[in-house]
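Per reviewer request, we include the raw input and output of the structure prediction for the construct analysed in the revised manuscript.
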Amino acid sequence: MQDCLTFKDLTLGYNRHPAVHHLNGAVRMGSLTAVVGANGSGKSTLMKGIVGILKPMSGSCVVAPGHKLAYLPQQSELDRTFPARVIDLVSLGLWPQRGLLGRHRADDRRRVGEALSAVGLEGFEKRPIDSLSGGQLQRTLFARVLVQDANLILLDEPFNAIDARTVTDLIALISRWHGEKRTVMVVVHDLDLVRQHFPEALLLAREPVAWGDARETLSSANLLRARQFHEAWDENAPWCPSGTTATPTQRSALSSDPLQPENAA
């Protein structure tokens, strides 16, 4: 199968301190991948690097030509006090085709209505977003992704602080996208959820620890390895150029000792 995303020695970070370190590998078109790891392991940073919000410190992240991208950030990054209605937020998914000030057509309004129906928010069109519960807001954001009709979908912690019913409904939408052969990457904390619903997983601890079949990736040995590597990380270590750390391969854990000093940069 063709690759949708290709990472070549990708290092991403802030103020010359890497948060994702020397990532190599590829994401297959039509795959469904959970990105997992402890807080601060680089999951959200990787998403921002793929979108282009963060530029690489070294290496590259290449999206296959012709792919439209939809990105759903964490709810904590959204300004819920902005005076907007549900329909306004969902309609933002149309801006790549219409522009922010473009006039919406009858087909556009139909797409927005169908998206709201798909997430269970019929009748919520005029509700202010600051009046929504966490689950309702996340449904609204998923409706915006539906309207975007992208073939590469990135979701950053979409299941945080929402009710179990909403989690079930959003998982069903993600499975629908996967069935439509869209490429989906989701940052997830609940490892049981990953084992139940995600075929593939990428386990990060600033560097990739394992990547491939979800159940194999989330083995006890790999999770211990990720925890040890994360705990041994030195925030003040200088940036290591390419070639100073081991290169991971898909579907296997790194063989280097995460507690060795040369891997702490």
